[in-house]
Amino acid sequence: MSQQNNYDESKTLQFFEACKNGDILMINILINYDEVDVNRKYLHGNTPFHFVCFGDSEHIVKIFLKNKRINLNILNDLGKTPFFMACELGKSYIIKLLLNDERINKNIADRDNEHTPLSAACLYRQLETIKLLIDYKKREKDPNLKNMIKYCMEVIEDYNYYDVYNLLKNAELSLSENIYYSKLWDACITAQFKEIAKLIISNDFTNDLCSITIDGETLLSKLIKMNYLEIIDIILKGHKNNLSRILNIKDDKGKSLIMLAIKHSSPKLVEYLIKFEEINYVDVDNKGNNILHHVASRDNLNITDIVLKHLYPNVKLNK
After folding, report:
1. pLDDT at 315
2. Greatest pairwise CA separation for the chain in angstroms
3. How far apart are CA 242 and CA 200, in angstroms?
4. For 192-319, CATH number?
5. How many CB atoms lie within 10 A of CB 281?
6. Which of 95, 158, 285, 316 is the most buried (most CB within 10 A)?
7. What is the pLDDT of residues 137-152, one digit of tens each?
């Protein structure tokens, strides 16, 4: 190996160590050396720019963005760009800088899990990053934003990330024209009773309550999953003239509200809903199952007792 190559390797390694340690002085000096390979890959295929985006120094990121030799969209061994990693780790100040640079590709997905920067931020519960990315997509008028939000909801479906879900749901609703329904949804999920009552008094949300959102749910179906009986009661009392329509609305699987209450094993909700004469008890879901099918599938004696006593008052249940 020649002396020149040794010098190149030494300076390149020195540059990498400076980036890893956040040594601004050495980075400023070495980044301008032609002998330094500024895009060299190291551990797990991460480049100096990856490590800079892991860190907390906006100033160092600005130095990199000013240097034309830096490959800003280079992938590591997991197929992740520096921008992707910043989103995954929730480096909000750095993300703001990168979002303002047109050379950064904000949509490159990782190689293994096919996550986007937005879905990765959702998976790792980076709330500020999620806000930044969605706001950016809105400003850019990205036509795929709704599909992105839907995919992110699918990603977090098996997690109890209500804070992330609320962010995504509010983002979806903000794309619609009815700003008051967006406020109602937020107030319901966060259990702001006074705000819910205020909105219900001032607005008729019948059409909105009967609309299925991109994740296949309605507001009431979501509230049933969360077992928010008091909030459901406030909403239904505020829409007495349209109960027949609202109570029988279905989600994307064809399940009505009472079917969902049975599915989620909530005797109180079942007992509350079954008293409404507007409910269509013979209705079936997409698989052809009616209320009794759902009762039988849950093996919950309390719910079975409630439903049979209402539908067949003369039947006695043997416990």
Report:
1. 61
2. 98
3. 13
4. 1.25.40.20
5. 13
6. 95
7. 988 888 889 889 989 9
Report the distance separating Cα 78 and Cα 67, nearest Å.
25
Contact 291, 262 (CB under 8 A): yes
CA 230 to chain centre: 26
- Per domain, the residue ranges of the chain are 192-319
* pLDDT, average across residues 244-269: 90
All residues at 6 or more sequence positions from 1 whose CB lies less than 8 Å from its CB, including other chains: none
227: left (phi over 0), alpha (psi -120 to 50) or beta: left
Helix residue ranges per DSSP H, 175-266: 179-189, 193-202, 206-209, 219-225, 229-237, 243-247, 257-263
Segment 210-219 shows an average pLDDT of: 81
Q: Which two tokens stand for residue 285?
A: 């879901």
C-beta of residue 141 within 8 angstroms of C-beta of residue 170: no
Q: Which residue has the higher pLDDT, 1 or 66?
A: 66
The rounded distance, in Å, linking the Cα atoms of 153 and 256 is 21
Instruction: Give the contacts of 288 (CB within 8 A, at least 6 positions apart).
Output: none
User: Average pLDDT for residues 270-287, to the nearest whole number?
Assistant: 91
How far apart CA 263 and CA 270 sit, in angstroms, is 10
CA distance 50 to 285: 50
Residue 226 predicted with pLDDT over 60: yes
Q: How far is CA 154 from the centre of its chain?
A: 8
